[in-house]
Every structure is written in structure tokens, then in C-alpha cells.
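This is your field. Have a critical look at the following sequence-structure pair:

***
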Amino acid sequence: MDIDKAESSTASESTTTEQIIDQMGGASGLVLSTVPVIALIVAHLFLPLMPTLAVALGAGAVLFVIRLARGEKVPSAIGSLLGVAVAAALVIWTGSVRDFFVIGIWAALAIFLPTAISVMARRPLTGMIWNAVHGGEHAWREDRPTYRAHVIATSAIAVAHLAKFVVQQWLYVAESITALGIADTLMGAPLTIALALVVVWAFRRSTTRMRAAEARHAETATGDLIDGRNL
């Protein structure tokens, strides 16, 4: 019975994971989202400010059409285009191409702070989210393997985003546009996919252990009931 429930929980967790990744446009969508940044980097090497932004916005618009044609969720495709548009508007306002990346830089810090604080408070954020998704009634912190899995997952998110903030902020201050674009690309989709895999592992581990504990509890309760009847 434990094996059947564990397999069922893993399948359920896989479905949830697929839904989450699908909302982000899928792995391929995350990779495609780097196209406007790459277009910006290349255009910046040869063109003035406004034509450079036009290339980035054009790449974002083409990407938007491609993502819709691939059957991706409309909010995901619109979000990607909107992100490029807002970044371009900020560049027009400041007159500096480096400000195309400023929102992402500070967003990394905004993600680092709550995840790091949650780990220090012994309430890792991924565990709290997992518990909320599964009814919010599980003593997941009392199960050491489950708690440890979420410490690892939440810490990975915190460390990765701190690294992203530090590296990109340093390149931003140094006004190294090309290096900043490369860093943004490498620390964008690949890092997001890697972190998603770690979170998926923590979620699956937690759900499997929860189902196994429930099965053991049910077997114990059944055994006690039978013993009581025998008496």
C-alpha cells in the first residue's frame, strides 16, 4: 500500500510541477525569453541607443508571436513582452542601456531576502508553500528529512539569487553592458530551470514521506481496531 501511495503522490507532484512550469512558458519558453537580451547585446555593439532598443523590442514582439503560435499560455507570452517593454521604457527614461537589466537585478535581491530570512527563521519558504498546497495541516518541520529537503531547496534559491544580484550589480556599476547581458542570460533561464528541479525534488520527497506516514498511521489504526475486536 505504501508503494502505491508513493507512486500516486509522485504522479500528482509531477502534474503540479508540469502546471507550474507550463505557467512560466515551459523550459523552452524560458530559454526563448533570453532572445531579446541577446538581441540587445548584439545590437548595442553596432547601433546607437534608440535603434538598439528597437531591435530588442522587435525581438520581443517576434518572440511574443512565436510563443502564441506554439500554444503557450497568453499571460506568459504577454508577461515576457511586457517585461521587455518596461525595461526599454526605463532605458529611454535614463538614457543608459545598462538600465535594461536593473529591474532583474533588484528582483533578484527581492527574492533573496524572504528566502534567506525564512531559512534563518527555520521556516523555509518552499516548505511553507508545499504545506499550504497540501492543506496546511502537516507537521512537516518535525520530519527531519522533509525539513532538510526544504532547507536545501530554499537555500539554493537564496544563494542563487544573491549571486545573481552581486554579480550583475557589480557589472552594472562597472557599466560593462556586454558582460552584464551575458551574465543575465546565463543566470536567467538555465538557473531558473535548475532551481525548479531542486524545488520539485523537495516537493516530491515531502509528498512521498507524507503519504507513507499516512499509510502507516492507517495500518496502525486498522490493527488496533482488529485487536480491540478480538479482545
